[in-house]
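ugh ok fine here u go
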Amino acid sequence: MSETGVITLAGVLERDTDYRTVLVAPASYFYGDLKGFDARANYEDIVEWFSLSTTIGNRRQYKLALLHSAIEKSTFGYQCE
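structure:
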């Protein structure tokens, strides 16, 4: 894990016996607690990263739309179908 708490794929691959868990969820899900996970990433930070990245390519808009949809849905709480 880097100093910023971000887990990179290279960092995961170099340790074949050490595992890390990352919780990816809307920022509203986090209350300062890692909830038993090693690290966390919130949707809003990922949206910002995708928005600023110039190397993502043609699927960037799709990924942004998907994350925005997930953020919007998270405001409604769990909805049983």
